[in-house]
């Protein structure tokens, strides 16, 4: 697999998606504020393809024109470690991204899936008690997001 070609192909696809989103949110000469991250859309879709096999995986692979989830995981790993890295030391803009997955303790998670999240997607992984401690989990998530984004985002849930 040529990672450079895969990244370029994914860039083309998510930029087409961005143009579509911008076109559909700008109607009758009216514009609205829009925050859209093609890189994060790609990461989210790749994550979904890695988790949901069968028709969902096939549809995402087709949409992103990828040969496999391994290709998507490699591209997403590159995005997370290079594109979404904080480049303030080099004078580049600061990008704050918080990748995390919280799963209820009652659910079993395959170790390989947890490993994929933490290593390829650089996502935090936590098993929590959504059923009886939802308020505490909400506070935990929001506190974590605030810390990860240097206070730029304070509430997620």
UniProtKB/TrEMBL annotation:
Protein name: Serpin-ZX
Family of the protein in this entry: Belongs to the serpin family.
Serpin domain location: 10-157
């Amino acid at each position: 697999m040529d990672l450079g070609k895969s990244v370029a192909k994914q860039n083309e696809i998510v930029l087409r998606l961005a143009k579509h989103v911008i076109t559909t949110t700008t109607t009758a000469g009216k514009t609205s504020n829009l925050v859209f991250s093609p890189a994060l859309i790609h990461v989210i879709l790749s994550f979904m393809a890695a988790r949901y096999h069968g028709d969902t995986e096939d549809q995402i692979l087709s949409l992103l024109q990828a040969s496999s989830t391994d290709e998507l995981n490699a591209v997403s790993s590159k995005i997370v470690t290079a594109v979404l890295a904080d480049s303030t030391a080099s004078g580049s803009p600061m990008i704050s991204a918080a990748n995390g997955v919280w799963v209820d303790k009652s659910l079993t998670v395959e170790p390989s899936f947890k490993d994929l999240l933490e290593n390829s997607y650089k996502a935090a992984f936590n098993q929590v008690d959504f059923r009886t401690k939802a308020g505490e989990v909400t506070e935990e998530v929001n506190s974590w997001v605030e810390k990860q984004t240097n206070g730029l985002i304070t509430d997620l849930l």
